[in-house]
């Protein structure tokens, strides 16, 4: 299993949201001077996080991994802008591809 801090922080939230989805919360609300019982379900639509946390939440490679884009499946390449200068550090780039395969919601 994953023992990362992200796992320990997110797992209880996910478990609780799944429980609420199966068993909605019953509340009483006042509508036009009368009380009504309503069932409420909670869904998580968005999470705001930095790139390393996003890759852990989405279970994908880090932004600087070979397949680090969270939207598409383009594999990065490592290049030197000056191929004759071996002391120059390689740069990671996303090559220009027009026929891009996008990730689906299950990836």
Strand order of the largest sheet: 1-2
Structural Rg: 22 Å
Low-confidence stretches: none
Shape: elongated
Number of continuous helical runs: 2
Mean pLDDT: 82
Write the element-wise H/E pattern from the N-terminal end onward.
HEEHEE
Detailed description of the structure:
With 107 residues, this protein is α+β, with helices and mostly antiparallel strands. The protein is 24% helix and 19% strand. It contains two helices and four strands; from the N terminus they run αββαββ. The protein has helices at residues 5-22, 51-58, and strands spanning 25-31, 34-40, 77-79, 91-93. Strands 1-2 form a two-stranded antiparallel ribbon. The longest helix is centred in the first third of the chain and has 18 residues, at 5-22. The two termini are 19 Å apart. The mean pLDDT is 82.
Fill in the keyword field for this structure.
107 residues; two-stranded antiparallel ribbon; two-stranded antiparallel sheet; 4 strands
Write the layout of secondary structure elements.
Layout: H1 5-22, E1 25-31, E2 34-40, H2 51-58, E3 77-79, E4 91-93
Antiparallel strand pairs: 1-2, 3-4
Question: What is this entry, summarized?
Answer:
The chain is an alpha+beta fold and 107 residues long.
């Amino acid at each position: 299993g994953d023992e990362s801090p992200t796992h320990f922080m997110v797992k209880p939230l996910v478990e609780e949201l799944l429980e609420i989805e199966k068993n909605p919360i019953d509340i009483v609300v006042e509508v036009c001077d009368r009380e009504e019982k309503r069932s409420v379900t909670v869904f998580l639509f968005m999470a705001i996080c930095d790139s390393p946390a996003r890759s852990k939440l989405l279970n994908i490679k880090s932004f600087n991994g070979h397949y680090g884009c969270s939207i598409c499946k383009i594999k990065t390449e490592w290049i030197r802008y000056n191929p004759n200068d071996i002391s120059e550090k390689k740069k990671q780039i996303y090559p220009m591809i027009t026929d891009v395969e996008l990730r689906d919601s299950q990836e």
